[in-house]
């Protein structure tokens, strides 16, 4: 559980001020959940304790084998704003996110994904909706988040509340800061979600970033310079798998191949692709000495093939030799890196 009273109820004066209007736009919070009995209460209560009260919460239970359904049903019985649905069959994580979004209310103006093991801070919906209401051209709003003890999704200048979608996507493809976060750290306009049968690309574990690059081509991006969500890091989560295989390494190439032409000119795109390929092989060369298993190499071989660049063993060998030479010529840095890995 989070510490320091982060989910204490707001002062009564604040509640009266914010919750008195029946005209506040409805926000649908979609919560995909699978075997999160140890975290789901915190996720649900973080919605209940929002300073903004015009919300509904739909928990989509992905055939959990623990007490996830029981816990969700307990809250649903106590609060009519909370609904619970259970999939007829187990599905992969991204598909369950899409299923959850298909359950949002047709009356909702905005919608938010909240993973069953994440949580929102009390002012999350209030602050994000305020950006939307003041800037009608915004399609997606993000904010800072905490992951463990770190504040993440930083990089935008503090004075920037709204930025052109084309500008922020262009900056990302040119190597700028990543501010799109995760699904739990974003708020979407519901009409954008409804117009896509599958909001997220189910074949892509980084589908949340991909959908930002698609939607923001003709819309603006809003940002709240405040920590509004908490993302938990678990050894058995999808994000842990992404770190273990480093799905981020081929992700840059995928983005450039599929969206580079929309945001970059030909010279910029060619330069960025060449750098991405070089960086990728530099990374793979370093992994050659780290006893990576067959699953790791199978994954990267498949991802390179998907972007039309079959894995070159020769390039891996050259990169590995370069990595070995660099380690020999920089013993101090090599020793420090080894110590960091061991500790």
Q: What's the structural blueprint in terms of helices and strands?
A:
Layout: H1 12-19, E1 27-33, H2 40-48, E2 55-61, H3 68-78, E3 82-86, H4 93-102, E4 110-113, E5 119-120, H5 124-134, E6 138-147, E7 150-152, E8 162-164, H6 165-173, E9 187-189, H7 190-194, H8 207-215, E10 220-231, H9 238-245, H10 248-263, H11 266-287, H12 294-306, H13 313-329, H14 331-342
Parallel strand pairs: 1-2, 1-4, 2-3, 6-10
Antiparallel strand pairs: 4-9, 5-10, 6-7, 6-9, 8-10
Helix pairs in contact: 6-10, 10-11, 11-13
**Outline:** globular
Order of helices and strands: HEHEHEHEEHEEEHEHHEHHHHHH
Rg on CA atoms, Å:
22 Å
Q: Quick check: average pLDDT?
A: 88
Fraction of residues in β-strands: 15-25%
**In the CATH classification, which architecture of the largest domain applies?**
Alpha-Beta Complex
Number of strands: 10
Structural class: alpha/beta
Uncertain residue segments? 1-20
CATH superfamily label of the largest domain? Spore Coat Polysaccharide Biosynthesis Protein SpsA, Chain A
| CATH uppermost class of the largest domain | Alpha Beta
Helix-residue proportion: 40-55%
CATH topology title of the largest domain: Spore Coat Polysaccharide Biosynthesis Protein SpsA, Chain A
**Number of domain units:** 2
Cα(first) to Cα(last) distance is 26 Å
Number of helices: 14
Major sheet characteristics: 10 strands, mixed
